[in-house]
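Regression test case RT-17, inverse folding.

Input:
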């Protein structure tokens, strides 16, 4: 794929900060890159607008570095914290109306399959918990029911982080937040468990405390979605701003979650496992 679509036109190139131009010139598009190469290429601008210690920003960086074919991948997003980083990341990115991301992704995947029948074009939804589990849950589930060959990745910070700290469906029961002073009244929506019985051929639950597991999960999810069916990756991306912990403790908070309710887990169908085995052999 050409980088023409993400390259600034000559008339405006000099007006953009050097960081933005470097996203194209030194992004991960054509050379084979991975998590172990972070720091040697430009995956996001340094002065992105996320809060200090933002788990979502870290999750976006790790996902961007884990894509098997970045130049042939389009990321579909929706309003929320993830938008701010994705708009300034070295990925092909399209935003949607809130919650519509899986419907848009399904349409794009079908169109790209017709336009490029002999080339893999990966369509990856990368959205927060509000977009996937709340406002967009119907679109999410129906894309899985229809077995659309797209990847859905949730960066789960368990809160509506950029609108004041409202609880989301993914917030833990009893959690007190700025706009939930009495604590959340119902349990965390079990989206990972729902994915297993809704048509996903592969699903994984991970946290930003385990970059290698994220890399493996994203790679498997993309490869399985190419040939077998929909896949889902759920990444815990804790929010220091709304959960009131120091911004340098994000990874520690994720590590603690891994010992309890956010233990890493993987699900794969027999068909998907057989397909991945054929690739490795």
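Golden output:
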């Amino acid at each position: 794929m050409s980088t023409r679509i993400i390259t600034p036109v000559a008339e405006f190139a000099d007006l953009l900060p050097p960081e933005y131009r470097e996203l194209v010139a030194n992004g991960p598009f054509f050379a084979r890159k991975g998590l172990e190469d972070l720091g040697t290429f430009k995956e996001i601008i340094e002065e992105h607008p996320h809060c200090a210690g933002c788990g979502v920003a870290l999750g976006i960086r790790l996902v961007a570095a884990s894509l098997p074919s970045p130049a042939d991948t389009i990321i579909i997003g929706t309003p929320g914290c993830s938008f701010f980083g994705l708009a300034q990341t070295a990925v092909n990115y399209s935003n949607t109306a809130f919650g519509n991301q899986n419907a848009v992704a399904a349409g794009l995947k079908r169109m790209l399959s017709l336009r490029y029948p002999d080339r893999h074009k990966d369509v990856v939804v990368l959205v927060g918990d509000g977009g996937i589990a709340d406002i967009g849950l119907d679109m999410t589930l129906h894309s899985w029911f229809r077995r659309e060959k797209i990847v859905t990745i949730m960066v789960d910070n368990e809160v509506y982080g950029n609108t004041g700290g409202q609880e989301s469906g993914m917030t833990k029961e009893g959690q007190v937040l700025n706009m939930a002073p009495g604590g959340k009244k119902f349990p965390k929506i079990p989206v990972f468990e729902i994915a297993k019985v809704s048509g996903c051929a592969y699903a994984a639950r991970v946290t930003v405390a385990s970059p290698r597991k994220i890399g493996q999960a994203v790679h498997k999810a993309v490869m399985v979605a190419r040939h077998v069916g929909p896949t889902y990756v759920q990444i815990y991306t804790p929010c220091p701003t709304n959960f009131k912990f120091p911004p340098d403790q994000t990874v520690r908070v994720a590590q603690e979650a891994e010992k309890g309710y956010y233990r890493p887990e993987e699900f794969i169908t027999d068909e998907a496992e057989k397909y991945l085995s054929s690739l490795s052999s």
